[in-house]
Amino acid sequence: MYLQGWLFFNSMEILLHYVWKHKLFPLKPLQTTDGQVLEVIDPGLHNTDSGPDFFNAKVKIGGTLWVGNVEIHDHASDWYAHHHDTDLAYSNVILHVAQVMDAEVCRCDGTPIAQLQLDVPTSVMDNYNELLAADKYPPCHRLIARLSPLLMHSWLTSLQMERLEQKTLAIDAIARRHQGDWEQAFFVTMARNYGFGINGDAFEQWAESFSLSVAGKHRENEFQIEALFMGQAGLLDEASLPVAVRQEALADAHYQRLAAEYRFLQHKYALQPIPHHLWRFLRLRPQNFPHIRISQLVRLYCSNGINLSTLVDCQTIEAINECMHTQVTDYWTTHYAFGQPSARSDKHLSPASLRLLVINTAVPVLFAYGRHLMDEKMCERAVAMLEQVKAEDNHIVRMWQECGLKVEDAAQSQALIQLKRRYCDRKDCLRCRIGYEYLKNNSKQ
């Protein structure tokens, strides 16, 4: 209840934006606080950045046409609380709108600004509270089937780009951390996504624990790369071995050779492994054990699959799939952990895992790198590739499908993930186009 109350009070101003934008005014004639007749000809262009809330509005006040900006607050006194009275950016405000009129307002030159007292209609408020209180996801589920395909396509396209932009910022931040090394940024991003959520943080910390300039000196020797990768993951530390099979693992010839090789590399390059306890094994299928995923990365790295120039050269999804497809190194075809033999299997990436890596690594890195190079065609290629990949199959996508929404490709499934995490989970319905439609449709019923 506290959270809902907090959302309610912090959303009042946004609700007023909604009422103003859609001209959901009372049936009686509008008047300014000093009694002048007010006519809203054009509410203006909604501004989501700094500055007044609506640009280039057109209103008639007392028969005089005014063209300029409109600012909206919950309380009129917020004009002063936000220091708009000393900000030249608000000099062209022609109308101040508020729900509670507790102050007169003036521009920085001291001239007064006309004010309109505006209430949120009961129907809009009721439907907004209904969205906040809904415990079923998505809260707007009963409206989905009535929305126009054009509206949904437009909103999903916007969400898809929003998610790509978000990932671009994260990848760019990694590159900056490594002094503009985009190869390292690609490697760290790939590694994180090899954690498939559960071990994502551990994989990212692992990939950040050593430089590719070190690994690159041994790229032609798969055994040395395996020793480096496993050692940096802390998986060659005796304490990382399960007590029940520790003796078998310590007696394992491959483990002994890797541990000896890693001790040499660790001393040579002054390496510091990550703590082995960062890895999570509980309720993890053996196919997803860190040993298996790291072994797959060893094979991928040594075959140049994690190479930015290789990725950039890929012109099709098929080429990316071929470049990123991998399997474990020889020892791991018969093991899931050190000293514990298993039935022989190549343990290659499953089609579903490969698809997730393309969606979450290859496409975002290609898009981010294109932005970095200001290569519009590369960015367009990345977006087009996302539309060629089959949609993800997860609980988020399935819930939207149950509402009647057809999800055809990864661009749409990524958009729906963005919608849930950035809007639905935060109850930010007023910034969602579906939420806007929910209020508008219901308020007219």
General description of the model:
This protein has 445 residues and is α+β, with helices and mostly antiparallel strands. Helix content is 49%, strand content 11%. Strands 1, 2, 3, 4, 5, 6 and 7 form a 7-stranded mixed sheet that branches. Strands 8-9 form a two-stranded antiparallel ribbon. A hairpin with a 2-residue loop joins strand 8 and strand 9 (340-341). It is elongated and about 90 Å long. 35% of the residues are buried. The model is unreliable at 1-9 (pLDDT under 50).
| Strand element count | 9
Sheet with most strands: 7 strands, mixed
Mean pLDDT across residues: 91
Order of helices and strands: HEEEEEHEEHHHHHHHHHHHEEHHHHH
How would you briefly describe this protein structure?
The protein contains 18 helices and nine strands.
